[in-house]
Amino acid sequence: MASKRKNLSFAEKNELIEKFQNSNLSKAAFAKANSIPRTTFNIILAAKLCSSNAQIFDQERKRQRLSPYENVDKALLSWIKHARSQNAPISWNVLKEKSLEFANELGESSFVASNGWLQRFNSSHNLSFTKLCGEAADFDSSSLKEWKDVVLRDILERYESANFFNVDECGLFYRILPDRTLCFKGEKCVGGEKSKERLTVLLAANMDGSEKIIPLVIGKFLKPRCMKNCKSLPLFYDANSKACLTADIWEKTLRRWDLNFSKQRRKVALIADNCTAHCTVDGLKSIELVFLPPNSTCVLQPLDQFIIQNFKATYRKLLLQDMISAIDRKEQLQVSVSNAIFYIDQSWNMVSQKTIANCFRHAGFHSSPESEELLEDDDEDLPLTE
C-alpha cells in the first residue's frame, strides 16, 4: 500500500533547506535520511523558498498561489507598510478603496475589490485585523395602533407630503477613525484610542424627501479657536458645556424654522419624539408640533429608519477618504469642529430624496395603499448598515 502523501508548509520547507545547508550530506542521502522522495527534495531546492518568502506568505500554507492582479497586490502591500509605519489605522473599507485607486492607476479595468479578493490578499500576505488598544424599549402596541389610526391619519389628511416633517437629533463622534486596523501578525498596534469629541446634530426632512432643513450642530464651545477666521458656515451652530440639545436651543431653533415657513406662507406638521429637550413651544404660527407616543421611536420615527444611519455612514466615508489622502501625503488627518461642520453639511446633502421617502414609508407614514406598495418595490434603495 502506498504511503499517504504529505504536503509541507513553507516553514517546513525552509527548515529542511537550512538543515540541508548545515549538513555534509548529499541531496540523495539527505532526502533518504528525512524520508523525503529525492525528486520532491530537488523541487524544493529548485524553488529557492528561502525564509524571506516564508515571512511574506503564511508559513502554514502549503502552496503559493499568485494573484491575477499582482501589480495591484504589490502596490497595496507597499502602501500598507507605509501606513503602518505611521501607526495609521486601516479598516476593511479603507483597504478596498485604496485597492480600487491602485487598480485604476495601473489600468486594471476588470479588477473588483470583492470581499473574497480581500480575504485572499490578507491570507497571502499574513495580514489580520486586530482591535486597537435605549430607544428600542418595549412599547404599548395598542397605543401605537391608536396613534397611527387617529393622530397620524388626521395629520396625513390635512398636510401634503411636502409639508410633513420629522425632526430628530443624533450624537456624532466627529473625529472617529476605525477602531480596528490591518497589521502584520505579531505587530503591536497603538494609536487607537476612541475619540471623545462629540457633537450633536439636529436633522429634519419632509415626507417626500424633497426638502432637508439646514442642520443645527451643537458643540461645547460657542467660539472654538478653529472658527476664529471662519467668516461663514454652511449650517447653524450653537453650544453648551455638554454639546447636547437643550430646551432653550430647541425652542430657538423651532422659532427660526417657524419664521422661515411663515415667510413662505406654508403650514407644516413637525413630528418629534417626546424627549425632555423637545418641549412644547407656544406661539408658533406655521408649525404644528406633534409628538410620537413614548418608546416608539424605533418603530415610528422616520429619521431612525436608516436616514440618520445613512448620514453617519456618509460622514464616515468622507472622513476615511481624507484619511487615505493624508496617509499618501505622509501627514496625519486633523479634524476640527469647523472641518466636521463641512463634512456634516456634505453628508446631509448626499442623503438622497428616495432614501428619505422610503424611510417615511417604512415607518408607516403613507397616505394611500399605493404609496405603501412603493416601499415593497424600492426596498433595495433603503440604506444598508455600515
How many DSSP H or I helices?
Answer: 14
The N- and C-terminal alpha carbons lie at a distance of: 55 Å
The total beta strand count reads: 8
Number of domains as seen in the coordinates: 3
Q: Which class of secondary structure composition applies to the elements?
A: alpha/beta
Q: State the shape.
A: elongated
| Overall radius of gyration | 29 Å
CATH architecture annotation name of the largest domain: 2-Layer Sandwich
Classified by CATH, the class of the largest domain is Alpha Beta
- The percent range for strand residues is 5-15%
Spatial strand order of the main sheet: 6-5-4-2-7-8
What oligomeric arrangement do these chains adopt? single chain
Assign a percent range to the helix content: 40-55%
Unreliable segments of 5+ consecutive residues: 49-62, 373-386
- Largest beta-sheet details: 6 strands, mixed
User: Whole-number average pLDDT?
Assistant: 80
Query: Might you state the CATH topology name of the largest domain?
Result: Nucleotidyltransferase, domain 5
Write up this protein.
With 386 residues, this protein is α/β, with parallel strands linked by helices. The protein has three domains: 1-64, no CATH class; 70-125, Arc Repressor Mutant, subunit A (Orthogonal Bundle); 141-179 and 194-363, 2-Layer Sandwich (Nucleotidyltransferase, domain 5), CATH 3.30.420. Helices cover 44% and strands 12% of the residues. The protein is built from 14 helices and eight strands. It has helices spanning 10-21, 27-33, 38-47, 51-56, 70-85, 92-105, 115-124, 141-158, 247-263, 297-300, 307-328, 337-350, 353-362, 369-377; strands spanning 127-131, 164-173, 180-184, 198-206, 216-219, 236-239, 268-272, 287-291. The strands form two sheets. A six-stranded mixed β-sheet has the order 6-5-4-2-7-8, sandwiched between helices. Helix 5 (70-85) packs across helix 6 and helix 11 packs across helix 12. It is elongated. The model is unreliable at 49-62 and 373-386 (pLDDT under 50).
